[in-house]
Design brief:
It is elongated, with a radius of gyration of 24 Å. By secondary structure, it is mainly α. Helix 1 (23-72) runs antiparallel to helix 2 (80-133). The chain contains five helices and no strands.
Length: 218
């Protein structure tokens, strides 16, 4: 399914019309749309997760402060009950936010699994063309200028980038609620939000893929 992409059937020089795209070209074009949609879903989950991660850090600091307060007030029964209730409520809320962030990471894991299938699919197209045309492959490009192997190469690079990012997300998930160092917590939050492995190079790869397959106007 194509979301927010070029859907015109008008033909420009060097580009097949939408209705003329069949066979391997149709499948590659659909894959490009799938990449676009999966990355949109990932970005939405990243924003949701960033909000949850910030809450976890703030709740973790509150929990640490309440423990210090309980130690200081240990000999004063007047506020012991109130402090215990606050600590219990804080711990419950912290656990809920951690569960929510775990759900986000699980959804991201599912997205990366779908990305891996797209890579396998592209490699399958190469194998098919090798069988049809020999080791040299197809002589004419499917779309503009890219050889078929470049689609598989771009897909693999995108997959590797998001797989590394997922590994980082999992590490942050494991450590975030247990970190009492404010500076380290800020590093975790920054890494979650800005995603060092899916940088501008990954965005350029995706845009190049969408341009080549006609999803973006040239």
């Amino acid at each position: 399914m194509e979301v927010g992409l070029q859907g015109s059937e008008t033909t420009t020089p060097g580009r097949k019309s939408q209705s003329a795209v069949t066979g391997s070209a149709r499948k590659v074009k659909d894959n490009a749309a799938d990449w676009h949609n999966l990355i949109l879903k990932w970005d939405r989950l990243n924003d949701e997760g960033s909000t949850m991660a910030n809450k976890i850090v703030n709740l973790g600091f509150n929990k640490s402060s309440q423990k210090e307060m309980q130690v200081m007030m240990a000999g004063q029964d007047t506020s012991a009950s109130s402090n215990s209730e606050n600590a219990f409520e804080n711990s419950r809320e912290l656990e809920e936010e951690c569960d929510k962030l775990l759900s986000v990471v699980d959804k991201m894991t599912h997205i990366v699994s779908k990305m891996e299938k797209l890579v396998s699919f592209e490699k399958g197209i190469i194998d098919l063309e090798t069988f049809q045309y020999g080791t040299g492959g197809r002589q004419t490009p499917l779309f503009q200028t890219w050889p078929t192997s470049q689609f598989a190469d771009v897909s693999n690079k995108l997959y590797e980038a998001y797989k590394q990012e997922l590994t980082l997300k999992r590490a942050i998930l494991q450590e975030l609620a247990h970190t009492t160092n404010p500076d380290l917590s800020m590093v975790y939050l920054s890494c979650w939000l800005y995603q060092p492995y899916t940088d501008d190079r990954a965005k350029l790869l995706l845009e190049g893929l969408l341009l080549e397959t006609g999803h973006r106007p040239i």
